[in-house]
């Protein structure tokens, strides 16, 4: 079996992001970059399949510039066999342009399964997984937290409000992962050393990398208003709190 895990090179979720001088993009100078956390869960699920069946090949793929190679090397250190980077500026453009260049690379690989995270932190579009399913004409399951594969078919579980939805289908398929029961593993020293020798294939994007969305401006959210402390007896405080929640917060 071959599994391709699509990952995204994103700012650390604890990093403080600033707007760049152009007013259209974030200023990532000096910002620590990581594998998008949901993509790490996807990679862990692929590695667990490989743990049970060592013949499974795990390929990690991303669309981005040379900086994204660091995340690919991290994935290789965690246990992936080889890596593909489709060379495009920055983090790969908008969701559709990323999906197109990744789909082109995936067609050449012809994997049994394609894994992604349910969303890439940063832009938080949550669109690349479904778009890959459509572009590759494969069954797609979003926000899955469990998967069983047997006899050329899959059974995936995904959380919905108040219940669990079970989705079945034929391979090949695209699965976008939510957080499951298996936290991503840490790269071992042996894995880090081995990653330096594993192949990292850099490919040209071609015409499919053309952006379909143009960002005109980017703004940080307004500062959060200071908290308020209500004083008085219990009845007055409760009445005022209810009024504020209804008239100002508009949550009741």
Tell me about this structure.
With 252 residues, this protein is an alpha/beta fold. Helix content is 28%, strand content 28%. It folds into two domains: 2-209, 3-Layer(aba) Sandwich (Rossmann fold), CATH 3.40.50; 224-252, no CATH class. It has helices at 37-52, 69-78, 95-109, 128-136, 189-195, 234-247; strands spanning 2-6, 9-11, 18-19, 26-27, 33-35, 57-64, 82-87, 113-117, 140-150, 153-160, 163-170, 173-177, 200-204. The chain has a nine-stranded mixed β-sheet, with helices on both faces. Strand 10 and strand 11 form a beta hairpin. Helix 2 packs across helix 5 and helix 3 crosses helix 4 (128-136). The longest helix is centred in the first third of the chain and has 16 residues, at 37-52.
Short summary of the structure?
With 252 residues, the protein is an alpha/beta fold. It has helices at residues 37-52, 69-78, 95-109, 128-136, 189-195, 234-247; strands at residues 2-6, 9-11, 18-19, 26-27, 33-35, 57-64, 82-87, 113-117, 140-150, 153-160, 163-170, 173-177, 200-204.
Any key phrases for this structure?
single chain, 252 residues, alpha/beta, Rossmann fold, 9-stranded mixed beta sheet, 13 strands
């Amino acid at each position: 079996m071959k599994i391709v895990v699509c990952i995204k090179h994103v700012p650390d979720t604890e990093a403080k992001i600033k707007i760049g001088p152009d007013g259209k993009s974030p200023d990532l100078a000096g910002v620590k970059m990581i594998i998008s956390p949901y993509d790490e869960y996807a990679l862990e699920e692929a590695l667990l399949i490989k743990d049970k069946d060592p013949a499974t090949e795990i390929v990690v793929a991303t669309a981005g510039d040379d900086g994204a190679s660091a995340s690919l090397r991290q994935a290789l250190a965690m246990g992936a066999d080889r890596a593909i980077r489709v060379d495009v500026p920055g983090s790969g453009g908008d969701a559709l342009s990323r999906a197109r260049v990744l789909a082109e690379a995936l067609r050449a690989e012809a994997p049994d399964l394609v894994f992604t995270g349910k969303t890439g932190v940063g832009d938080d579009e949550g669109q690349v997984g479904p778009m890959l399913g459509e572009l590759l004409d494969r069954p797609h399951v979003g926000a899955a937290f469990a998967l069983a594969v047997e006899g050329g078919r899959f059974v995936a579980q995904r959380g919905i409000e108040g219940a669990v939805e079970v989705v079945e289908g034929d391979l090949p398929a695209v699965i976008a992962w939510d957080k499951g029961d298996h936290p991503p593993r840490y790269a071992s020293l042996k894995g880090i050393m081995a990653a330096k020798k594993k192949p990292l294939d850099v490919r040209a994007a071609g015409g499919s990398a053309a952006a379909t969305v143009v960002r005109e401006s980017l703004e940080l959210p307004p500062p959060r208003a200071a908290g308020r402390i209500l004083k008085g007896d219990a009845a007055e405080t409760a009445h005022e709190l209810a009024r504020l929640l209804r008239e100002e917060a508009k949550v009741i």
